[in-house]
Design brief:
With 355 residues, this protein is α+β, with helices and mostly antiparallel strands. The protein contains three helices and 24 strands. It has four domains: 85 residues, Beta Barrel (conserved putative lor/sdh protein from methanococcus maripaludis s2 fold); 84 residues, Efflux pump adaptor protein, beta barrel domain (Elongation Factor Tu (Ef-tu), domain 3); 60 residues, OB fold (Dihydrolipoamide Acetyltransferase, E2P), CATH 2.40.50; 74 residues, Orthogonal Bundle (Helix Hairpins). About 6% of the residues have low confidence.
Length: 355
């Protein structure tokens, strides 16, 4: 009987030992990860935007009367001087209007001359009481009416001559023709833009910036600008004009940067500009640290007390080329998993090394 008791105790011990071995075999080893200590740093949101050199003053030229184009003397790229003839439209109608107006003016002048003589004669006669006061008043009225008609005829002639002068399109300033939309034989309407003149003088760089850039606030005034083909020619310039409205077609905001006089680049030169916003505070993490919690950005945070990990949602203010900026959800000195986090589970034990 005693032997059976000893045998039972031995079997029980063997079973317990086997259970311990099984438990030990099924307990996973801590997951090896690499971590980084979160640190608050100063970062400066920025973007590289391509733009174009344009004249600060640019004018769309148009005829002030309608007609058919009979002469064009310039093309895109031509440098013109103020007052230079650029194009003409058929002026037959305007010439006829001038002739009619001149004839009407001559007729009005003759009538005024006639009415003036009649008035002078009537004044002499009324003084000698040969004619009545009523007849004299009628002669004065006729003279006043004739003089008014003369003034109207003179104004009509001036209008006709002005319309005739508008059949010629002339440059209003020295500059370069940058766009053309007319050909000989084409019928153009009054006020229809046919040529674009970029005035000589100061140059601007024009950028069309997507509105998302302004979520970080307006850019700083200083902008680094360089031709796309030669970044070594980089210069610093200041923002001259910031459009207060968004372009409804492209969803962009136009920024004009004033070029220095010693940076005289040709019109149309493609350039790149580096725009920056005011410095901000945040925690910068590499892209390898980002995870997802039900579709929202998160990171694996190490719990120092039990050496396990927990998934923590974070507020990302900006995604950059090789990292992202966190402004909420974690604090400085928190240990964040940067490598080995793809297969982690909530509460899993980890072993780590710093980066």
């Amino acid at each position: 009987m005693k032997s059976l008791q000893i045998l039972g105790i031995g079997l029980a011990c063997a079973c317990l030992a086997a259970c311990d071995d099984k438990t030990a075999a099924t307990s996973p080893a801590p997951q090896q990860v690499r971590v980084i200590a979160a640190a608050s740093v100063q970062y400066q949101p920025g973007a590289e935007i391509t733009g174009e050199v344009k004249a600060r003053n640019q004018t769309d030229l148009s005829f002030r009367v309608s007609g058919r184009v009979i002469d064009r003397q310039v093309d895109v790229g031509a440098h013109v001087r103020a007052g230079q003839l650029l194009a003409r439209i058929n002026d037959t109608e305007q010439q006829a209007d001038v002739s009619v107006a001149r004839a009407a003016l001559a007729s009005a002048q003759a009538v005024v001359k006639q009415k003036t003589l009649a008035f002078e004669r009537s004044r002499a006669l009324v003084q000698s009481q040969v004619i009545s006061q009523e007849t004299f008043d009628e002669a004065r009225k006729d003279l006043t009416s004739a003089q008014a008609n003369l003034e109207a005829a003179a104004a009509a002639l001036a209008t006709a001559e002005d319309a005739l002068s508008h059949t010629e399109l002339k440059a209003e300033a020295d500059g370069i023709i940058t766009a053309r939309s007319l050909e000989v034989g084409q019928v153009v309407s009054a006020a229809q833009s046919v040529l674009t003149l970029a005035h000589d003088g100061p140059r601007d760089v024009v950028f069309d910036v997507f509105e998302a850039f302004f979520l970080d606030g307006p850019p700083l005034s200083d902008v680094a600008v360089a031709p796309v083909g030669d970044r070594a020619l980089e210069v610093h310039a200041n923002i001259r004009e910031l459009s207060p409205v968004i372009d409804p077609k492209g969803g962009t905001i136009r920024i004009k940067v004033r070029l220095q006089e010693n940076s005289y680049w040709p019109l149309g030169t493609p350039v790149v500009g580096i725009l920056r916003s005011a410095p901000r505070e945040g925690i910068v993490l590499p892209y390898t640290a980002i995870a997802s919690a039900k579709g929202e950005p998160a990171v694996w945070l190490i719990n120092d007390e039990n050496l396990s990990v927990t998934l923590r949602k974070v507020a990302v203010s900006r995604y950059r080329k090789s990292d992202f900026v966190v402004t909420g959800g974690i604090a400085p000195d928190d240990l964040i998993v940067t490598e080995g986090g793809k297969f982690l589970k909530e509460g899993q034990a980890v072993a780590w090394e710093g980066k």
